[in-house]
Amino acid sequence: MNVAVDGPAAPFWEKGKEMYYTRYGQLELSCANCHEQNYGNFIRADHLSQGQINGFPVYRLKDAKLSSIQNRFKGCIRDTRAETFKPGSPEFIALETYVASRGNGLSVEGPSVRN
Description:
With about 120 residues, the chain is α+β, with helices and mostly antiparallel strands.
């Protein structure tokens, strides 16, 4: 992964970083609450990742199909009991830019397989 975080991408990266640390929904959870503070712990029989997306798209066994990172974002936000954004929205593009940059230096491993 080698995601640019400067130039034209900078405003998206900044907004995505802000979103990553913002608490959403009735459960008041941010991405960082799970992927930084609880990395490696289990959630619904799956290990929490460090919040990198180098394995996306993923083949989700429970859905029997490929799933995009924006679809995963939608599920996470829904699980916080918040109103989610639409795939392709500026919010999800910003969040994807920031989260992808967290994996800079990692090899691309997608598609991967998850429950």
